[in-house]
Design goal:
There is one protein chain. This protein has a seven-stranded antiparallel beta sheet, with helices on both faces. Strands 5, 6, 7, 8, 9 and 10 form a six-stranded antiparallel beta sheet that branches. It is an alpha+beta fold. The protein contains 16 helices and 17 strands. It is globular and about 70 Å long. The longest helix has 15 residues. It has four domains: about 90 residues, Uridine Diphospho-n-acetylenolpyruvylglucosamine Reductase, domain 2 (2-Layer Sandwich), CATH 3.30.43; about 120 residues, Uridine Diphospho-n-acetylenolpyruvylglucosamine Reductase, domain 3, CATH 3.30.465; about 100 residues, Alpha-Beta Plaits (2-Layer Sandwich); about 90 residues, Alpha-Beta Plaits (2-Layer Sandwich), CATH 3.30.70. It starts with a helix and ends in a 13-residue tail after the last helix. The mean pLDDT is about 95. The structure holds (2S)-2-hydroxypentanedioic acid (S2G) and zinc ion (ZN). (2S)-2-hydroxypentanedioic acid (S2G) binds next to helix 12 and strand 15. The site of (2S)-2-hydroxypentanedioic acid has 8 residues, from helix 12 and strand 15.
Amino acid sequence: MRTPDVLLRRLADAVGFEHVLSDDTVTAGYTTDWTGRWHGPTTAVVRPGSTAEVSEVVRVCAAAGVGVVPQGGNTGLVGASVPVHGEVVLNLRRLNSIESVDSVGRTLAAQAGVTVATAQQAAADAGLMVGVDLAARESATLGGIVATNAGGLRVVRHGTTRAQVVGVEAVLADGAVLRRWTGLAKDNVGYDLVGLLTGSEGTLAVITKVLLRLAPRPVRVQVALVGVPSLDAALEVLSANVDAGHTVEAAEFFHGDGLALVRETLGLHRPLGADYPTYLLLELSNVSEDDVAAVLTGCTAVGDATIGPGPASRLWAYRESHTEAVSAAAASLGTPAVKVDVSVPLPRLQSFEDEVRAVVGARFSTVDVITYGHLAEGNSHVNLLGVPDTEAEDATDTVLRLVVDHGGSISAEHGVGRAKRRWLPLVRSAADVAAMQAVKRAFDPAGIFSPGVLLP
Ligand code: S2G
Ligand code: ZN
């Protein structure tokens, strides 16, 4: 028998014949990433139904010397969730049960394949909330947001996924099951393996369960969409609310060009009486509408604003629909958007975005630069529409070098994956990269987990 047939049979022995997919037409949805930019062949897509089956799949692949790409909802944006050279895709979506919600200890225990939305609903049923929220909530999985250390829309209030994770279960490269699961607020015993696996992008282990802390649900929530002349003005309005003692649950920004794309794609009305260069979406708690109106009235930079009680989904739609609108515009242009998730120090956010538009505009006359993101973290999602595929790498290089010039990070929340691996040395020293490679060698000496992701 050819090796692949032996491998396929052993994988079928591990998870059941019906959960080993090898027909290209069936595996296509698993081998191309959400952006459409990253794709590659796979030996098979395997869908284990338990931690024990994940362990057996890893053992079989390790014995066969075949790479493994752990995959959750395949909503990743940096090419880390799909194969490149025939790796087995280990899809975790069948691990989809919520094990427990502890409303006293305020934790949620769930298998890695549970979606963010499902976890959010389970928390809400207990009168609590998950501190991570992102537009891809219906398909992004808990294992995926932990492996990425996803940020999302609530970082200003709750921190990134790392701040929510208090325990993980994971399968290591030899098939052993690691379980750090006390859930105790203070458990200071040994290396922080939970923290190490968070953000490891599938390169150190396969996360099979997560234990998340839960947060109290905010009260007296107001959402304001504010028209301002610039990002600096948006920062002034944000500061005025913080200084007034308002609790900031979210602080998002977008610009007039992105809004026009969203309105065109979704047929939405203009949110304010006129168009503005920049928009600030603020979600505040422990405040009344009058409290918010009073602060906004005091900000000379405010052109106009609309305020509504939470959840104000209609206002949020203007921000959350940017990803979909950019994707639709890219599809109509016939080439994926160049997506560059970055962060810069707040005082330099305005100048960074101005320079990106000027430099990209000078370099690519027909390219649209659409930016939006998380204001309080200086996290800008730079999306370039209309860049020929052959120049995507150069365009990314241009943006990332501008980020470094502004003292920023080449990846704010989407991770490094394969997309940004080349630029790691711009922001991590040789000693730093060597230390991460030493960790990789210790955890995955044969290099079977997500080869080519994150590390050179
Ligand atoms: C956001 C989602 C993905 C993207 O909207 O905050 O992280 O880059 C992004 O559109
Ligand atoms: Zn984001």
